[in-house]
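Why Peptidase M20 domain-containing protein 2? Reviewers of the renewal asked for a concrete example.
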Amino acid sequence: MTHTPPADGATPTVSAVVRDTIDGAAAGLVRLSHQVHAAAELGFAEHRSVGHVRDLLAASGLDVEVGCHGQPTAFRAMAGSGMPRVAILAEYDALPGIGHGCGHNVICATAVGAFLGLAPHIKGLGGSVVLLGTPAEENGSGKELMARAGAFDDVDAVLMLHPFAGPDIADFTALGCRAVEVTYRGVPAHASATPHMGRNALDAVVAAYQGLAALRQHMPQTDRVHAIITEGGTAVNVVPALARATVMLRSATVEGLLELTHRVQAILDGAAQVTGTVLEAAWDPVPPYLPVRTNTTLAGRYAAHVTARGRTVVHPDGLPSGGGGSTDLGNISLRVPAIHPMLGIAPAEAGMHTAAFAEHAAASPADRAVVDGAIGLALTAVDYLSDPVLRAAVAAEFAAAGGPVDVAALLDTVATPAPSPA
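Here is what the prediction returned.
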């Protein structure tokens, strides 16, 4: 896809010095990527990963606050002062059993690299840049929790990227996502002597799972429902009195997510009624992830800069919702103009959230992508900070898309439907 930037951006001299600074830091950035990859820490427990970031920034004479905005493994570093202010976001949590099968080590290194490139030159640009470390994207909606604690209150634009199994995509959008923890409670009985006295909670979970499978035939193509059974009994000769499952829902719009919620709740209720069990449906163990509202003006800038590095940027048409994933960056993109481009580091067949992708996340193409991505983010920030015409265009696009949203109130609209009595 060809992106046509609407304004002139930064001078070639400023861009060149930022680019050269990041190229000079390449070895340290690749090392950081590999350190975070090796640590492979789960959300809210990324202590070693954050320590590696702190050490690299300290070696460049930059201060970083670890433990901020209510999160012990969040971090914040600032360069410059005043407005406009750009935030560059880092992620660094891993997946259980897979490690960095989503490549957050690359996200971390590119964000830190962009900040290292900007910090020495920010006074010449005006305004400020903040590096925010955002924990628990995979399992905790860390960005939403940080936003509620004020992390984005004085930010004008947000930049981050994500590695991808496939091509580079600048104007990426993602699906909204929410989850429900399902518990069915039945009545235990001897499975052979007195089965008629029991009420089988495992049957209820299986019925619910089958109902969800049938639902998939009749959803919009961008919707997703997936589930796992997490508990189904402890002894084969006892009618299971307790069974549990986790169900995840995704949709391209908030309205679609709400509609899907009601349909899933009806299936869960029906399974309880069929089996004579009692349903407990605990929605949203973490805040829902809302669909990403990408700012195509900023995305065009990013695309131009990584294209200059020899990368090929394609349009997401043909990929389901840009790849079908979800991210808590969606919640921030409704508050502040934001981008979340995808940075190709692996072939499409590697897939995301796989052990194969985890291997690619520490291979040489990913190492090259760390530097390319850091430069792309940094030069996009340079353009935004130095060009008032660009800032106006970004703001106009954001306003036309609906402007800032009260996300807390919006999440209330995705309210849990009241369960039907079993």
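The radius of gyration is 23 Å. This is the kind of structural detail the renewal will allow us to pursue systematically.
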